[in-house]
Amino acid sequence: MIRKKKIEPTPIPTASTADIAFLLLLFFLVTTTINSDKGIRMVLPEYNPNPEESKIEIHKDYLAKVLVNAEGKVLLDDKEVAIEDIKGAIEKRVIKDHDEAIEKTMATFADARLLDQKLLRQYATAKFSKQEEEIKQEYSKNLKLVISVKVDKSTQYDVYIKVLDQLKQSNAKKISIAEPNVG
């Protein structure tokens, strides 16, 4: 009789397992993106120890007052509006202000009309040539509309953020955050 040879199972090599695990870990660390909360993008003024000196009078035609009470109701120039309607109402005033600023800018720069849509829609993100940058600065000086947002201390943050989002979507450039009434 022929005897079968007993075959012993070969062990699996595990010497490089740690290396492979390390390389996989490194690969996933490098390729994974981590979302971070960026917050609200706003340019805030520098601290002024004497605020009385820096007060600027704004004509009532160039001031839009947005008031939000504790219940989340919004008043736009003393008229109650739904949060969703803020964008449309402010956008009309922004476009009117934009047109006036373009007209004033054209008195200095004849090419200002060429930048008309670029200035209105892509003001913060557009790339400008040197001459366009000068026009942009002149245009910024000529913008008059200021939106003043005043919120009650006990207003919920989500309502406040929705109001700010509506203002940003309306292409408003000058948004002032007023202090709530104390007392």
Q: What's the layout of helices and strands?
A:
Elements (H helix, E strand, L loop, with lengths): L16 H15 L31 E6 L5 E3 L2 E3 L4 H23 L7 H6 L8 H13 L3 E6 L5 H13 L5 E4 L5
Explain how this protein is built.
The chain is of the alpha/beta class. It has a domain at 60-178. The protein has helices at 17-31, 86-108, 116-121, 130-142, 157-169; strands at 63-68, 74-76, 79-81, 146-151, 175-178. It has a 5-stranded mixed sheet, covered by helices on one side. The protein is elongated, with a radius of gyration of 29 Å. The N and C termini lie far apart (107 Å).
User: What is the strand content?
Assistant: 5-15%
Task: Tell me, briefly, the overall form.
Answer: elongated
What does the radius of gyration come to?
A: 29 Å
- Class computed from helices, strands and strand pairing: alpha/beta
Order of helices and strands: HEEEHHHEHE
Strand order of the largest sheet: 3-2-1-4-5
Major beta sheet, specifics?
5 strands, mixed
Total of DSSP H or I helical runs spanning 4+ residues: 5
Whole-number mean pLDDT = 77
DSSP E strands, number? 5
Low-confidence stretches: none
- Estimated helix fraction: 25-40%
Intertermini distance? 107 Å
Label this structure with key terms:
183 residues; alpha/beta; five-stranded mixed beta sheet
Question: What is this entry, summarized?
Answer:
This protein is of the alpha/beta class and 183 residues long.
